[in-house]
Amino acid sequence: MSDLSKLVKAYDVRGIVPDQFDESVARALGTAFIEMLRESGDNADEIVIAHDMRESGPGLAAAFARGANAAGAAVLNVGLASTDGLYYASGALGLPGAMFTASHNPAQYNGIKLCRAGAKPVGQDSGLAVVRQRAEALLDDLNAEADGPARVETRDLLADYAQHLRSLVDLTAIRPLKVIVDAGNGMGGYTVPAVLGDQVLPALPLEIVPLYFELDGSFPNHEANPLDPANLVDLQNAIREQGADIGVAFDGDADRCFIIDENGDPVSPSAVTALVARRELAKFPGSTVIHNLITSAAVPEIIKEAGGTPVRSRVGHSFIKAEMARTNAVFGGEHSAHYYFRDFWFADTGMLAAMHVLAALGGQERPLSEFAAEYERYSASGEINSTVADAAAKVAEVRAAFAGATFDELDGLTVSLPDGAWFNLRASNTEPLLRLNVEAAKPDRMASLRDEVLAIVRS
Protein backbone atom coordinates (compact mmCIF):
# COMPACT_ATOMS: atom_id res chain seq x y z
CA MET A 1 0.00 0.00 0.00
CA SER A 2 1.32 3.41 -0.94
CA ASP A 3 1.78 5.83 1.95
CA LEU A 4 2.36 9.51 1.15
CA SER A 5 1.92 10.75 4.74
CA LYS A 6 5.59 11.77 5.04
CA LEU A 7 5.44 13.64 1.72
CA VAL A 8 2.07 15.41 1.95
CA LYS A 9 2.37 17.86 4.86
CA ALA A 10 -0.21 20.13 6.51
CA TYR A 11 0.10 22.91 3.90
CA ASP A 12 2.05 21.49 0.97
CA VAL A 13 3.89 18.55 -0.55
CA ARG A 14 7.58 18.29 0.35
CA GLY A 15 10.11 15.46 0.34
CA ILE A 16 13.40 14.03 -0.89
CA VAL A 17 13.75 13.29 -4.62
CA PRO A 18 13.53 10.51 -5.74
CA ASP A 19 13.23 8.52 -2.47
CA GLN A 20 9.92 10.08 -1.38
CA PHE A 21 8.96 12.08 -4.44
CA ASP A 22 9.42 10.85 -8.03
CA GLU A 23 7.63 11.34 -11.34
CA SER A 24 5.16 8.50 -10.75
CA VAL A 25 4.07 10.18 -7.50
CA ALA A 26 3.89 13.58 -9.24
CA ARG A 27 1.70 12.08 -11.97
CA ALA A 28 -0.67 10.54 -9.41
CA LEU A 29 -0.86 13.86 -7.54
CA GLY A 30 -1.72 15.65 -10.81
CA THR A 31 -4.69 13.37 -11.43
CA ALA A 32 -5.73 13.49 -7.77
CA PHE A 33 -5.62 17.32 -7.71
CA ILE A 34 -7.99 17.60 -10.68
CA GLU A 35 -10.38 15.02 -9.20
CA MET A 36 -10.39 16.80 -5.82
CA LEU A 37 -11.17 20.14 -7.50
CA ARG A 38 -14.07 18.64 -9.44
CA GLU A 39 -15.48 16.85 -6.38
CA SER A 40 -15.46 20.13 -4.44
CA GLY A 41 -17.29 21.97 -7.23
CA ASP A 42 -14.33 23.93 -8.61
CA ASN A 43 -13.76 24.40 -12.32
CA ALA A 44 -10.88 22.08 -13.20
CA ASP A 45 -10.89 22.28 -17.00
CA GLU A 46 -7.49 24.00 -16.92
CA ILE A 47 -4.71 24.53 -14.38
CA VAL A 48 -1.49 26.55 -14.34
CA ILE A 49 1.84 25.07 -13.21
CA ALA A 50 5.34 26.44 -12.62
CA HIS A 51 8.63 25.31 -11.09
CA ASP A 52 11.64 26.87 -9.38
CA MET A 53 15.32 26.37 -10.25
CA ARG A 54 15.70 22.88 -8.73
CA GLU A 55 17.01 20.32 -11.22
CA SER A 56 14.12 17.94 -10.58
CA GLY A 57 11.48 20.63 -11.18
CA PRO A 58 10.84 20.35 -14.95
CA GLY A 59 10.50 16.53 -14.85
CA LEU A 60 8.18 16.52 -11.85
CA ALA A 61 6.07 19.34 -13.32
CA ALA A 62 5.78 17.50 -16.65
CA ALA A 63 4.72 14.30 -14.86
CA PHE A 64 2.11 16.23 -12.86
CA ALA A 65 0.84 17.72 -16.14
CA ARG A 66 0.45 14.21 -17.59
CA GLY A 67 -1.61 13.26 -14.57
CA ALA A 68 -3.79 16.35 -14.97
CA ASN A 69 -4.22 15.56 -18.69
CA ALA A 70 -5.22 11.98 -17.79
CA ALA A 71 -8.01 13.44 -15.64
CA GLY A 72 -9.19 15.58 -18.55
CA ALA A 73 -7.67 18.96 -17.67
CA ALA A 74 -5.60 21.22 -19.91
CA VAL A 75 -2.35 22.57 -18.48
CA LEU A 76 -0.77 26.01 -18.86
CA ASN A 77 2.92 25.66 -18.00
CA VAL A 78 4.53 29.03 -17.24
CA GLY A 79 7.93 27.41 -16.64
CA LEU A 80 10.35 29.07 -14.25
CA ALA A 81 8.65 31.21 -11.61
CA SER A 82 8.82 32.34 -8.01
CA THR A 83 5.98 31.09 -5.82
CA ASP A 84 4.35 34.51 -5.90
CA GLY A 85 4.74 34.41 -9.69
CA LEU A 86 2.56 31.27 -9.71
CA TYR A 87 0.08 32.99 -7.35
CA TYR A 88 -0.02 35.90 -9.80
CA ALA A 89 -0.84 33.50 -12.66
CA SER A 90 -3.55 31.77 -10.59
CA GLY A 91 -5.07 35.10 -9.58
CA ALA A 92 -4.85 36.95 -12.89
CA LEU A 93 -6.01 33.99 -15.00
CA GLY A 94 -8.54 32.61 -12.51
CA LEU A 95 -7.01 29.11 -12.63
CA PRO A 96 -6.07 26.54 -9.97
CA GLY A 97 -2.29 26.24 -9.67
CA ALA A 98 0.61 24.00 -8.73
CA MET A 99 4.03 25.43 -7.86
CA PHE A 100 6.96 22.98 -7.80
CA THR A 101 9.30 24.15 -5.06
CA ALA A 102 10.76 23.10 -1.74
CA SER A 103 11.27 26.75 -0.75
CA HIS A 104 14.37 27.02 1.49
CA ASN A 105 14.91 23.26 1.92
CA PRO A 106 18.25 21.71 0.82
CA ALA A 107 18.96 20.68 -2.78
CA GLN A 108 17.75 17.07 -2.55
CA TYR A 109 14.19 18.21 -1.75
CA ASN A 110 11.31 19.24 -3.96
CA GLY A 111 7.61 19.72 -3.39
CA ILE A 112 4.37 21.32 -4.54
CA LYS A 113 2.31 24.23 -3.27
CA LEU A 114 -1.26 23.86 -4.53
CA CYS A 115 -3.93 26.54 -4.81
CA ARG A 116 -7.45 26.92 -6.12
CA ALA A 117 -8.36 29.62 -8.64
CA GLY A 118 -7.56 33.10 -7.32
CA ALA A 119 -4.52 31.77 -5.39
CA LYS A 120 -6.73 30.34 -2.60
CA PRO A 121 -4.56 27.95 -0.56
CA VAL A 122 -5.08 24.19 -0.48
CA GLY A 123 -4.12 22.67 2.88
CA GLN A 124 -4.84 19.53 4.84
CA ASP A 125 -8.39 20.62 5.72
CA SER A 126 -9.15 22.28 2.38
CA GLY A 127 -8.45 19.46 -0.06
CA LEU A 128 -4.87 18.29 0.48
CA ALA A 129 -5.87 15.25 2.56
CA VAL A 130 -8.24 14.21 -0.24
CA VAL A 131 -5.48 14.67 -2.83
CA ARG A 132 -3.15 12.46 -0.79
CA GLN A 133 -5.68 9.65 -0.34
CA ARG A 134 -6.67 9.70 -4.01
CA ALA A 135 -3.00 9.70 -5.14
CA GLU A 136 -2.24 6.74 -2.87
CA ALA A 137 -5.14 4.82 -4.43
CA LEU A 138 -3.93 5.68 -7.94
CA LEU A 139 -0.40 4.47 -7.16
CA ASP A 140 -1.84 1.15 -5.93
CA ASP A 141 -4.19 0.71 -8.91
CA LEU A 142 -2.54 -1.03 -11.85
CA ASN A 143 -5.51 0.02 -14.00
CA ALA A 144 -5.33 3.73 -13.14
CA GLU A 145 -6.07 6.20 -15.91
CA ALA A 146 -3.76 6.00 -18.92
CA ASP A 147 -2.22 9.21 -20.19
CA GLY A 148 -4.83 11.27 -21.99
CA PRO A 149 -4.03 13.41 -25.02
CA ALA A 150 -1.24 15.84 -24.14
CA ARG A 151 -2.81 19.28 -23.64
CA VAL A 152 0.00 21.47 -22.38
CA GLU A 153 0.50 25.08 -23.47
CA THR A 154 3.61 27.00 -22.44
CA ARG A 155 3.57 30.74 -21.76
CA ASP A 156 5.97 33.23 -20.17
CA LEU A 157 4.21 35.51 -17.66
CA LEU A 158 7.29 37.16 -16.10
CA ALA A 159 6.69 40.54 -17.76
CA ASP A 160 2.99 40.50 -16.80
CA TYR A 161 3.90 39.66 -13.18
CA ALA A 162 6.46 42.49 -13.09
CA GLN A 163 4.00 44.98 -14.58
CA HIS A 164 1.33 44.02 -12.04
CA LEU A 165 3.68 44.54 -9.08
CA ARG A 166 4.84 47.88 -10.43
CA SER A 167 1.19 48.94 -10.74
CA LEU A 168 0.78 48.42 -6.98
CA VAL A 169 3.85 50.33 -5.72
CA ASP A 170 5.21 53.35 -7.61
CA LEU A 171 9.00 53.56 -7.36
CA THR A 172 9.56 56.00 -10.23
CA ALA A 173 9.87 59.17 -8.11
CA ILE A 174 11.99 57.93 -5.17
CA ARG A 175 15.51 59.17 -4.50
CA PRO A 176 18.24 56.96 -6.03
CA LEU A 177 19.06 53.93 -3.89
CA LYS A 178 21.89 51.41 -4.01
CA VAL A 179 20.31 48.02 -3.32
CA ILE A 180 22.26 44.79 -2.83
CA VAL A 181 20.07 41.74 -3.38
CA ASP A 182 21.11 38.24 -2.26
CA ALA A 183 19.01 35.75 -4.22
CA GLY A 184 20.84 32.74 -2.74
CA ASN A 185 20.87 31.14 -6.23
CA GLY A 186 17.08 31.02 -5.94
CA MET A 187 14.21 32.54 -7.89
CA GLY A 188 14.96 36.10 -6.80
CA GLY A 189 17.74 35.96 -9.41
CA TYR A 190 15.01 35.54 -12.03
CA THR A 191 12.38 37.97 -10.73
CA VAL A 192 14.46 40.91 -9.42
CA PRO A 193 15.89 41.93 -12.84
CA ALA A 194 12.35 41.92 -14.25
CA VAL A 195 10.60 43.77 -11.42
CA LEU A 196 13.29 46.10 -10.04
CA GLY A 197 15.72 46.21 -12.96
CA ASP A 198 15.34 47.22 -16.61
CA GLN A 199 15.14 43.74 -18.13
CA VAL A 200 11.50 44.04 -19.27
CA LEU A 201 10.29 47.44 -18.00
CA PRO A 202 11.80 50.95 -17.84
CA ALA A 203 14.63 51.46 -15.36
CA LEU A 204 13.84 52.67 -11.83
CA PRO A 205 16.03 54.93 -9.64
CA LEU A 206 17.64 51.78 -8.21
CA GLU A 207 21.19 50.54 -8.60
CA ILE A 208 20.73 46.79 -8.15
CA VAL A 209 23.89 44.95 -7.09
CA PRO A 210 23.32 41.20 -7.60
CA LEU A 211 24.60 38.57 -5.20
CA TYR A 212 24.18 34.91 -6.26
CA PHE A 213 21.66 35.57 -9.05
CA GLU A 214 22.69 32.44 -11.01
CA LEU A 215 19.81 29.96 -10.77
CA ASP A 216 21.29 26.86 -9.15
CA GLY A 217 19.20 24.41 -7.13
CA SER A 218 22.34 22.92 -5.58
CA PHE A 219 22.80 26.22 -3.65
CA PRO A 220 26.60 26.42 -4.06
CA ASN A 221 27.07 29.59 -1.96
CA HIS A 222 24.73 29.20 1.00
CA GLU A 223 21.29 27.78 1.74
CA ALA A 224 18.46 29.94 0.42
CA ASN A 225 17.08 30.35 3.93
CA PRO A 226 17.55 33.90 5.23
CA LEU A 227 15.97 32.99 8.59
CA ASP A 228 19.36 31.46 9.48
CA PRO A 229 21.73 34.36 10.32
CA ALA A 230 24.66 32.44 8.77
CA ASN A 231 23.05 32.89 5.35
CA LEU A 232 22.98 36.69 5.69
CA VAL A 233 26.71 37.19 6.35
CA ASP A 234 27.75 37.67 2.69
CA LEU A 235 25.01 40.24 2.15
CA GLN A 236 25.84 42.10 5.36
CA ASN A 237 29.54 42.29 4.42
CA ALA A 238 28.72 43.48 0.89
CA ILE A 239 26.45 46.26 2.24
CA ARG A 240 29.18 47.58 4.53
CA GLU A 241 31.96 47.28 1.95
CA GLN A 242 30.01 48.89 -0.90
CA GLY A 243 28.12 51.56 1.06
CA ALA A 244 24.69 50.37 0.00
CA ASP A 245 21.48 51.99 1.23
CA ILE A 246 19.69 48.68 1.81
CA GLY A 247 20.05 44.92 1.37
CA VAL A 248 17.33 42.45 0.45
CA ALA A 249 17.60 38.66 0.85
CA PHE A 250 15.10 36.26 -0.70
CA ASP A 251 14.49 32.61 0.14
CA GLY A 252 14.66 29.87 -2.52
CA ASP A 253 11.23 30.40 -4.07
CA ALA A 254 11.34 34.17 -3.40
CA ASP A 255 8.04 34.36 -1.53
CA ARG A 256 9.81 35.77 1.57
CA CYS A 257 12.11 38.78 1.79
CA PHE A 258 14.45 39.92 4.56
CA ILE A 259 15.61 43.52 4.87
CA ILE A 260 19.10 44.62 6.01
CA ASP A 261 19.95 48.26 6.79
CA GLU A 262 22.96 50.28 5.65
CA ASN A 263 24.98 49.16 8.69
CA GLY A 264 24.42 45.49 7.88
CA ASP A 265 21.87 45.03 10.67
CA PRO A 266 18.62 43.12 10.00
CA VAL A 267 15.35 45.04 10.13
CA SER A 268 12.93 42.78 11.98
CA PRO A 269 9.98 41.34 10.03
CA SER A 270 7.76 42.93 12.71
CA ALA A 271 9.12 46.36 11.77
CA VAL A 272 8.53 45.60 8.08
CA THR A 273 4.97 44.47 8.92
CA ALA A 274 4.29 47.74 10.77
CA LEU A 275 5.87 49.85 8.01
CA VAL A 276 3.88 48.20 5.21
CA ALA A 277 0.71 48.28 7.32
CA ARG A 278 1.07 52.04 7.74
CA ARG A 279 1.50 52.49 3.97
CA GLU A 280 -1.50 50.30 3.12
CA LEU A 281 -3.66 52.06 5.72
CA ALA A 282 -2.74 55.41 4.15
CA LYS A 283 -4.23 54.07 0.89
CA PHE A 284 -7.19 52.26 2.49
CA PRO A 285 -8.03 54.14 5.74
CA GLY A 286 -9.70 52.21 8.53
CA SER A 287 -8.87 48.76 7.11
CA THR A 288 -8.07 45.62 9.06
CA VAL A 289 -4.49 44.32 9.23
CA ILE A 290 -3.67 40.76 10.34
CA HIS A 291 -0.54 39.96 12.36
CA ASN A 292 0.42 36.67 13.92
CA LEU A 293 0.83 36.49 17.67
CA ILE A 294 4.64 36.29 17.52
CA THR A 295 5.02 39.73 15.95
CA SER A 296 6.12 42.60 18.16
CA ALA A 297 3.62 44.41 20.37
CA ALA A 298 4.63 47.45 18.31
CA VAL A 299 2.71 46.05 15.32
CA PRO A 300 -0.85 46.37 16.74
CA GLU A 301 0.14 49.69 18.37
CA ILE A 302 1.23 51.19 15.05
CA ILE A 303 -1.78 49.76 13.20
CA LYS A 304 -4.10 51.47 15.72
CA GLU A 305 -2.11 54.74 15.53
CA ALA A 306 -2.56 54.64 11.74
CA GLY A 307 -6.33 54.26 12.16
CA GLY A 308 -6.49 50.55 11.33
CA THR A 309 -7.90 47.55 13.15
CA PRO A 310 -5.30 44.94 14.18
CA VAL A 311 -6.41 41.30 14.32
CA ARG A 312 -4.20 38.61 15.89
CA SER A 313 -3.86 35.27 14.16
CA ARG A 314 -2.25 31.93 14.82
CA VAL A 315 1.12 31.36 13.16
CA GLY A 316 0.95 29.93 9.63
CA HIS A 317 -0.20 31.04 6.21
CA SER A 318 -3.45 29.07 6.21
CA PHE A 319 -4.59 30.86 9.40
CA ILE A 320 -3.45 34.29 8.16
CA LYS A 321 -5.15 33.85 4.78
CA ALA A 322 -8.38 32.62 6.40
CA GLU A 323 -8.46 35.67 8.72
CA MET A 324 -7.69 38.01 5.83
CA ALA A 325 -10.56 36.58 3.79
CA ARG A 326 -12.93 36.71 6.78
CA THR A 327 -12.14 40.35 7.59
CA ASN A 328 -11.26 41.57 4.07
CA ALA A 329 -7.94 42.72 5.56
CA VAL A 330 -5.76 44.94 3.41
CA PHE A 331 -2.50 43.33 4.60
CA GLY A 332 -1.06 40.63 6.84
CA GLY A 333 2.44 40.01 8.22
CA GLU A 334 4.29 37.28 10.08
CA HIS A 335 7.48 37.16 12.16
CA SER A 336 8.87 34.69 9.57
CA ALA A 337 8.86 37.40 6.83
CA HIS A 338 5.77 36.22 4.99
CA TYR A 339 3.72 39.23 3.85
CA TYR A 340 0.18 38.98 2.44
CA PHE A 341 -1.71 41.55 0.37
CA ARG A 342 -5.38 41.98 -0.45
CA ASP A 343 -4.47 43.43 -3.84
CA PHE A 344 -2.42 40.28 -4.52
CA TRP A 345 -5.34 37.88 -4.00
CA PHE A 346 -4.60 37.69 -0.23
CA ALA A 347 -1.46 35.73 -1.17
CA ASP A 348 2.07 36.24 0.12
CA THR A 349 4.71 37.99 -1.95
CA GLY A 350 8.18 38.92 -0.75
CA MET A 351 8.78 41.12 -3.78
CA LEU A 352 5.82 43.41 -3.09
CA ALA A 353 6.89 43.81 0.55
CA ALA A 354 10.42 44.71 -0.58
CA MET A 355 8.97 47.30 -3.00
CA HIS A 356 7.01 48.91 -0.16
CA VAL A 357 10.19 49.20 1.92
CA LEU A 358 12.10 50.69 -1.03
CA ALA A 359 9.29 53.19 -1.67
CA ALA A 360 9.18 54.21 2.00
CA LEU A 361 12.97 54.53 2.28
CA GLY A 362 13.30 56.36 -1.03
CA GLY A 363 10.45 58.73 -0.22
CA GLN A 364 12.43 60.42 2.57
CA GLU A 365 16.07 61.30 3.24
CA ARG A 366 17.05 59.42 6.40
CA PRO A 367 19.12 56.21 6.30
CA LEU A 368 17.22 52.98 6.78
CA SER A 369 18.55 52.34 10.31
CA GLU A 370 17.14 55.66 11.51
CA PHE A 371 13.90 55.30 9.54
CA ALA A 372 13.27 51.71 10.70
CA ALA A 373 13.90 52.64 14.35
CA GLU A 374 10.39 54.16 14.45
CA TYR A 375 9.04 50.64 14.08
CA GLU A 376 11.48 48.84 16.43
CA ARG A 377 10.07 49.85 19.81
CA TYR A 378 10.94 46.82 21.94
CA SER A 379 13.64 44.23 22.45
CA ALA A 380 12.88 40.77 21.06
CA SER A 381 14.66 37.46 21.46
CA GLY A 382 13.84 35.99 18.08
CA GLU A 383 12.65 32.39 17.96
CA ILE A 384 14.63 29.99 20.20
CA ASN A 385 14.11 26.23 19.79
CA SER A 386 14.58 23.67 22.56
CA THR A 387 14.37 19.89 22.13
CA VAL A 388 12.07 18.41 24.80
CA ALA A 389 10.73 14.92 25.53
CA ASP A 390 7.26 16.08 26.63
CA ALA A 391 6.25 19.49 25.28
CA ALA A 392 2.87 19.62 27.08
CA ALA A 393 4.46 18.89 30.47
CA LYS A 394 7.07 21.62 30.00
CA VAL A 395 4.43 24.17 28.97
CA ALA A 396 2.43 23.29 32.10
CA GLU A 397 5.56 23.72 34.24
CA VAL A 398 6.21 27.17 32.74
CA ARG A 399 2.59 28.19 33.27
CA ALA A 400 2.78 27.21 36.94
CA ALA A 401 5.95 29.28 37.39
CA PHE A 402 4.19 32.45 36.17
CA ALA A 403 1.00 32.08 38.17
CA GLY A 404 0.41 35.84 38.52
CA ALA A 405 0.52 36.55 34.78
CA THR A 406 -2.18 36.75 32.10
CA PHE A 407 -2.46 33.69 29.85
CA ASP A 408 -3.66 33.28 26.27
CA GLU A 409 -3.82 30.00 24.36
CA LEU A 410 -4.66 31.11 20.81
CA ASP A 411 -1.48 29.36 19.63
CA GLY A 412 0.62 27.63 22.29
CA LEU A 413 0.89 29.58 25.54
CA THR A 414 1.28 33.38 25.53
CA VAL A 415 2.19 34.83 28.93
CA SER A 416 1.78 38.60 29.49
CA LEU A 417 3.44 40.18 32.54
CA PRO A 418 2.44 43.36 34.42
CA ASP A 419 5.44 45.35 33.14
CA GLY A 420 4.42 44.76 29.50
CA ALA A 421 6.94 41.99 28.84
CA TRP A 422 5.52 38.84 27.24
CA PHE A 423 6.57 35.51 25.83
CA ASN A 424 5.04 32.78 23.71
CA LEU A 425 5.89 29.09 24.01
CA ARG A 426 4.53 26.75 21.37
CA ALA A 427 5.23 23.21 20.28
CA SER A 428 6.37 22.39 16.76
CA ASN A 429 3.83 20.43 14.70
CA THR A 430 6.53 18.27 13.16
CA GLU A 431 9.46 17.95 15.61
CA PRO A 432 9.97 17.41 19.38
CA LEU A 433 10.65 21.12 19.83
CA LEU A 434 9.34 23.98 21.90
CA ARG A 435 9.66 27.39 20.26
CA LEU A 436 10.14 30.42 22.53
CA ASN A 437 9.69 34.09 21.61
CA VAL A 438 10.25 36.81 24.23
CA GLU A 439 9.75 40.58 24.08
CA ALA A 440 10.28 43.35 26.64
CA ALA A 441 10.80 47.10 26.73
CA LYS A 442 14.56 46.86 27.34
CA PRO A 443 17.25 44.33 26.29
CA ASP A 444 18.22 43.41 29.87
CA ARG A 445 14.62 42.66 30.86
CA MET A 446 14.13 40.59 27.70
CA ALA A 447 17.34 38.64 28.42
CA SER A 448 16.43 37.89 32.06
CA LEU A 449 12.92 36.73 31.12
CA ARG A 450 14.27 34.63 28.24
CA ASP A 451 16.79 32.95 30.54
CA GLU A 452 14.17 32.35 33.23
CA VAL A 453 11.86 30.55 30.80
CA LEU A 454 14.66 28.58 29.12
CA ALA A 455 15.91 27.40 32.52
CA ILE A 456 12.54 25.71 33.09
CA VAL A 457 12.17 24.39 29.53
CA ARG A 458 15.67 22.89 29.47
CA SER A 459 15.80 21.55 33.03
UniProtKB/TrEMBL annotation:
Q: Which GO terms describe its molecular function?
A: metal ion binding; phosphomannomutase activity
Question: Pfam families in the record, alphabetically?
Answer: PGM_PMM_I (PF02878), PGM_PMM_II (PF02879), PGM_PMM_III (PF02880), PGM_PMM_IV (PF00408)
Listed InterPro entries: A-D-PHexomutase_a/b/a-I, A-D-PHexomutase_a/b/a-I/II/III, A-D-PHexomutase_a/b/a-II, A-D-PHexomutase_a/b/a-III, A-D-PHexomutase_C, A-D-PHexomutase_C_sf, Alpha-D-phosphohexomutase_SF
Domain Alpha-D-phosphohexomutase alpha/beta/alpha positions = 6-126, 160-264, 271-378
Extract one GO BP annotation from the record. carbohydrate metabolic process
**EC number(s) given by UniProt:** 5.4.2.8
Taxonomically, which superkingdom? Bacteria
Q: Which residues form the Alpha-D-phosphohexomutase C-terminal domain?
A: 383-454
Its keywords, alphabetically, are: Isomerase, Magnesium, Metal-binding, Phosphoprotein
Instruction: Give cofactor(s), names only.
Output: Mg(2+)
Q: Which family does it belong to?
A: Belongs to the phosphohexose mutase family.
Protein name as catalogued:
Phosphomannomutase
According to its UniProt entry, this protein's organism is: Paractinoplanes abujensis
